[in-house]
Amino acid sequence: MSDFPGAPSAPRDGRRLRVLAAMSGGVDSAVAAARAVEAGHDVTGVHLALSANPQSFRTGARGCCTIEDSRDARRAADVIGIPFYCWDLAERFREDVVEDFVAEYEAGRTPNPCLRCNEKIKFAALLDKALALGFDAVCTGHYATVVVNEDGTRELHRASDMAKDQSYVLGVLDERQLAHAMFPLGDTVTTKDEIRAEAERRGLAVAKKPDSHDICFIADGDTQGFLAKRLGKAEGDIVDEAGNRLGTHEGAYGFTIGQRKGLRIGHPAPDGKPRYVLDISPVTNTVTVGPAEALDVTALTAIKPRWCGVAPEGPGTYTAQLRAHGGETEVTAELVGEELRVRFTEPVRGVAPGQAIVLYDGTRVVGSATIAATERVRTGAAAQ
């Protein structure tokens, strides 16, 4: 009997698996690796070196990918009693995540680098290398659940604890990747405080380490400053819906749809209400602002769909999540050619091209796609 409530009690499918545990240096991945060992699997820990110059990435609580994190991961592996390696994936990370992030902002879109990292690094580059070395599965500290059906197929579901659910950033995983994914934290109703307490009982020094947050590869958390260094300053106009010039900016890439703060418009709107970013045009380097109601989105088109299983056929009713920490909203969706057409039951706000939309059927993740365009109640403010 395990001394740790919620820890798995037997190997998945009754088999002892060779598991590669991705250890970021944080508490979640450390406990996930320990639970995989306790479940009877043959576990090896690996820390991904994602920066060519780790000192340029964040330290302490500000993020991951630091020398400190690799040392924390190694110490955790020593306590757990598993082999540990550090793999250099910095070049792959730079190309597939960092450069993609910059290119998306330059094109006026708002990307989510965590989804791209899960898709391209943790469950592509890492998984491919793991399988080539004879491992059966990759284990991470994500809060999500893989359900194995009677026919052997697998489904991705939300974590039991909705407050910690991370299935949104895993919505890019396809059926093959799910077949080799293990999330030991997702199928138990376990709070973060309980995970920390479990880590402390296991003797893991990361038990009290603060969570990382924001974007791991932006050293000081200043996204606009990071982009300015990469793309350079490019002064342009801030205009209203009628095209009237209200102010200037130093780069359209520094704005996101729905943004309210930091517009630096010198005078208030005629009605005295706040204004929000409605559209970003990289071609003209123009940012359009307007009232909150102009942000109401009724439908969208998304591209590059990825399905956690078989692609759905015909129109269907689902719930959708539009950001990592957002709620669900009811939609109808249909795959038309290579495009996903989505219509919302009620208008939603804060929807920007470049974001991911993840569809759910109950707790099951159906799949995800990248938002390409939106339709709004006020068509004059429609995103391009």
UniProtKB/TrEMBL annotation:
The region called Interaction with tRNA is annotated at 164-166
Site (Interaction with tRNA) found at H142, Q355
Which keywords, in A-to-Z order, does the entry hold? ATP-binding, Cytoplasm, Disulfide bond, Nucleotide-binding, RNA-binding, Transferase, tRNA processing, tRNA-binding
Where does the tRNA-specific 2-thiouridylase MnmA-like central domain start and stop, copy by copy?
225-290
Q: Which Pfam families does this one have?
A: tRNA_Me_trans, tRNA_Me_trans_C, tRNA_Me_trans_M
State the function annotated in the UniProt record. Answer: Catalyzes the 2-thiolation of uridine at the wobble position (U34) of tRNA, leading to the formation of s(2)U34.
- Can you name this protein? tRNA-specific 2-thiouridylase MnmA
